[in-house]
Amino acid sequence: MVITLNNDFRPSYLEEIKPFIDKPQIKVITGIRRSGKSNVLVLLKKELFAQGILAEQIITINFESFVNAEILSASKLYQFVKDEIQTHQKYYLLLDEIQEVNDWEKAVNAFLVDFDVDIYLTGSNSHLLSSELVTYLAGRFVEISVYTLSYKEFLDFRQHYFTEKQNEQNLFSHYLRMGGFPVIHSANYPEESAYKVVYDIYSSVILRDTVQRYKIRDVELLERVIKYALDNIGNTFSGKNVADYFKSQQRKIDINTVYNYLNALEGAFILYRVPRYDIKGKEILKTQEKFYVSDISIIYATMGNRDRMIGGILENIVFLELKRRGYHVYVGKLDQTEIDFVAEKQGNKIYIQVAYKLENEQTVNREFGNLLSINDQYPKYVISIDEFWKDSIEGVRHLYITDFLLAKNN
Question: What is the C-alpha to C-alpha distance for residues 9 and 14, in angstroms, rounded to an integer?
């Protein structure tokens, strides 16, 4: 049986794109493989039809399909599109996984110059928006980032695909274990089978978007760097920390190689780098960053049970939700104190501490005290899985994690 994903569960991405329809900017939709970028294009296509655009005005190409293997160069892609444009009407180009086309930037630039087109691209590499693209398309593109399912989207999937009732705590536990790849929540996978699906996605990303794209020769060493990063979710570290760790394991690695590998993993959306921010000095620091994974299921699928990492995994979930909501996210430094997240959007900030449980006075004093030491009026939150803890302390609010994940984006 073929499972067809219901695309209507993720309207937020279409709402983000709508203001740019028929605008001159190229819309670049990015995210890890299997996060739902192609389904966003399906939603977009429905919207174009609803606006009266004719099917013959929409040119859709998936460059991962073998059908299109003959047009994976800029010149052949250009000729193909040129042949498809038969009238003087505006055409809509929906180009899926554009990074598979050699010198694609030249073709896209030529489309803008030669035709009346509205262009939408998807790509599984964050470096699509690199210096090469900027050179050709300076000031003429906008990025829409697609992530794996949010908790709300996960609930929508559960409601559509499954009829059995579950209480909220069980549902969050399921999300906490399974992560948010859409394919996992479109069928009733046992945990072991789900992790196999995730591992296959991960392996594809490693091979196609990391090893091949960045011409990495020592794949085994790359895997070791990944596992170091995954094992340190929620901890600050530097390239030197990684190199020193490998040295202690009698395996030498150059610091520049570490950073090159981490950069490649960022490019493939396996990891997100989060810089530290000096709250007093109001500057971004260049050392001891944190890295979070694009979906927590990757941790379980590659490393097995990691219950001891529950604090870091909860941080990871909160981090991804902040990114979905359009925040720029930093790790806060206040003297010798760390604030889990300083999130900024449109000139406003929020401060967040994430804890597993506020189970004793020492933990309460630490989590709330860190935020109370920040001397400004921006909102401050402690997020944990203590469902029945309702106290606020001197203006610092506590939120149960699902209350945070389901809160409106404001």
Answer: 11
